[in-house]
Amino acid sequence: xxxxxxxxxxxxxxxxxxxxxxxxxxxxxxxxxxxxxxxxxxxxxxxxxxxxxxxxxxxxxxxxxxxxxxxxxxxxxxxxxxxxxxxxxxxxxxxxxxxxxxxxxxxxxxxxxxxxxxxxxxxxxxxxxxxxxxxxxxxxxxxxxxx
Length: 147
What we know:
Blueprint: E1 10-12, H1 17-25, E2 35-42, E3 47-48, E4 51-60, H2 62-79, E5 84-95, E6 99-107, H3 110-127, E7 130-136, E8 141-143
Parallel strand pairs: 1-5
Antiparallel strand pairs: 2-6, 3-4, 4-5, 4-7, 5-6, 7-8
Helix pairs in contact: 2-3
């Protein structure tokens, strides 16, 4: 997979279950794959200072973020025996309960996909310049802190 150029991983709004299902279905013809693992990041309806989060508005330095996503992708292919990998992240408003991050890895063997998905998600959280503004029921907001 080395040598690929960065692709745009961003989707406007929530990542739909139909998009996720279609992505999975496209891999059924790749019969050298023996295992898949998926991480779905979902917006939580956290309560902060007595107010409930109803949505998060995601923004990013898109060019820088896409480059970081690419670097994480390349590092994962070097570190793990993966057949393929897909990362999608939301931009714009995503309501509580909706999916904002979809990471999908495949490998000939199951033992590769578990540590790979954890590595990728932790690297995304630590390195990628994507920012979330938590919007509360009363339409006030604050910048989200990654945990």
